[in-house]
């Protein structure tokens, strides 16, 4: 009954914070660890009793088969005694078997719920990290936009510098062409200027 009560307590719905406190207490408390150690020893004795109950069941079943083979030895007291012994052996088998089964079930459910609590804690910490990073990523996104704007302004200013350099080259080429044409015109007309060309 204690195992059934403990199992019902472990699997009943409760708030996560309460379940977390309860399972951390059960898994980390040294007094609970000593109680668990004592229970393990008790379950070893229960396992021995289970094996004994199985052997008694087999022996009583063999005696019943032998009694049915000899129909001349039927007595009401013998039959009642046989039925009582069989009932006690079956009762002991069911009680010890159920106790062992519930102990294994309790241990497994306890560790499953404990793993679930650890996974839930990790999930919440990851969610908080993601939330912090998303806030930082929003700032990063704003900074990226500013960088793109500055790069665009830099390209525009570099484009203006290139335009100025291109304009300067064109002016130089036009000046050289003008001087060449002026020299040809002067040769053709025969007029020579007193100024020296730059």
From TrEMBL:
Domain Bap31/Bap29 cytoplasmic coiled-coil residue range list: 145-196
Chain intervals for the UniProt region annotation (Disordered): 169-198
Pfam families listed in its UniProt record: Bap31 (PF05529), Bap31_Bap29_C (PF18035)
Domain BAP29/BAP31 transmembrane: 1-124
Transmembrane segments: 35-54, 93-114
Record's subcellular location: Endoplasmic reticulum membrane
InterPro entries: BAP29/BAP31, BAP29/BAP31_N, Bap31/Bap29_C
Compositional bias of kind Polar residues: 188-198
Keyword annotations of the record: Coiled coil, Endoplasmic reticulum, ER-Golgi transport, Membrane, Protein transport, Transmembrane, Transmembrane helix, Transport
Protein family membership: Belongs to the BCAP29/BCAP31 family.
Role according to the record: May play a role in anterograde transport of membrane proteins from the endoplasmic reticulum to the Golgi.
Name used for this protein in its record: Endoplasmic reticulum transmembrane protein
Provenance organism: Kwoniella bestiolae CBS 10118
């Amino acid at each position: 009954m204690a195992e059934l009560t403990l199992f019902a307590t472990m699997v009943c719905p409760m708030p996560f914070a309460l379940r977390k406190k309860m399972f951390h207490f059960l898994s980390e408390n040294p007094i609970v660890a000593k109680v668990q150690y004592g229970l393990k020893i008790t379950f070893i004795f229960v396992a021995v009793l289970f094996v004994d109950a199985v052997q008694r069941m087999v022996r009583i079943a063999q005696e019943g088969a032998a009694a049915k083979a000899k129909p001349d030895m039927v007595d009401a007291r013998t039959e009642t005694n046989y039925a009582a012994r069989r009932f006690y052996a079956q009762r002991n088998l069911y009680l010890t078997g159920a106790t062992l089964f519930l102990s294994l079930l309790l241990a497994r459910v306890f560790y499953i719920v404990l793993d679930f609590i650890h996974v839930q804690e990790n999930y919440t910490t990851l969610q908080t990290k993601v939330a912090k990073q998303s806030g930082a990523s929003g700032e990063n996104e704003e900074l990226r936009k500013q960088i793109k704007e500055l790069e665009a302004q830099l390209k525009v200013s570099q484009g203006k510098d290139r335009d100025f350099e291109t304009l300067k080259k064109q002016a130089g080429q036009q000046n050289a062409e003008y001087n060449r044409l002026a020299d040809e015109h002067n040769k053709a007309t025969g007029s020579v200027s007193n100024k020296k060309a730059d």
